[in-house]
Fold Gas vesicle protein.
Amino acid sequence: MSKGTFLFGAAIGGAAAYVAAYLFTPKSGEEYQLELRDKAEMLKETSSDYMSIAKERGGDFKAIATDAAVGLKTDMQLASKQLTEQLKMDSQILKADLKDVKDGVPGSKETLKANLSEAVNEAKYTAVSLKDQVSQTTSEAKDISKAVVDEAKMEINETKAENNPVDTF
C-alpha cells in the first residue's frame, strides 16, 4: 500500500467522521431553547386557531338549534291551533248529531257515526301533518349541522397544514 492511498483513505475517513459527528452531535442548549420556543409558539398559534374554530362552530350550532327550536315551536303552535279549531267545530256537529239521536231522528245514528269517523280522520291527518313538519324541520337542522361539521373539519385540516409544514432536508 502506498502512502498516497493511505492518505487518501485517511482523508475520506476523516471527512466521513466529520459529517457523522456533525449530523449526530447534540445541539447546544441555546439551539434547543430556540427550537423549543419556536415549537411552543407554533403550538400556541395552533391552539388559538382551533379555539377560534370551536367558538365559531359552537355559535353556528347554537344558531341552528335555536332556529330549529323556533321552527318546531311555530309548527306545534300552528298544529295546536288547527286541532283546537277542528275539535270545536267537530264537537258542535257531534253535539247536534247526539241530540238528534236522543230525539229519535231517523238516520241520526248513521250521521253521528259518519261525522265521528270524519272527525277522527281529520285529527289523524293533522297529527300526520305535524309529524311531517317536525321531521322536515329536524332533517333541515341535521343537514345544516352536517354542513357546519364538514366546514369545521376542512378548517381544522387547513390549520393543521399551515402549522405542520412538511420538513424538507
